[in-house]
Amino acid sequence: GENVEQHPSTLSVQEGDSAVIKCTYSDSASNYFPWYKQELGKGPQLIIDIRSNVGEKKDQRIAVTLNKTAKHFSLHITETQPEDSAVYFCAASPNFGNEKLTFGTGTRLTIIP
Amino acid sequence: DGGITQSPKYLFRKEGQNVTLSCEQNLNHDAMYWYRQDPGQGLRLIYYSQIVNDFQKGDIAEGYSVSREKKESFPLTVTSAQKNPTAFYLCASSRANTNTIYFGEGSWLTVV
Hints:
Chain A is mainly β.
């Protein structure tokens, strides 16, 4: 089955700086890669996703890049703000195979004011 | 407001007791899911259902049971056979043939 590794497990950055979280996956059949943000005591919320036919996708201050050859994808958050502090999860699955969605172990991001 | 409602938010259970977690959605989604989240780990799939009256085991189904009698409801029972039930449980749903999964706010279960 799919195995998703996520690094780092914790990350602290100064407010205004950029944060990068990286994930690798093992199954070449995976072609959908979402990122979720989870605030303390709440359910994860989808913040951005990318499919394998696209190398990069941006949405305001967040972007995701995908290198399908190397089987890794990354989340980039620019101009970080205190409200970006949360746990971020990457995941991978084949198209429309939500039951096969495999999550990384999460990154706790702390923004230092 | 449309969304996924999980209840109760916090639940304490004595060892040997079964407990049922409720999940209701008014998004008209066909598929529903139950995940378990432990500290320092990713989400792990317990059960899923793609249509009413049908459900499938996920990666960690042992000690759990579900039912899907209505499209909007997918309750999870944590049985006494579950050896380590203390965890954060997340219910989710999605439209058919789409990848976007929406999560509820979660339920904390503690065995005392």
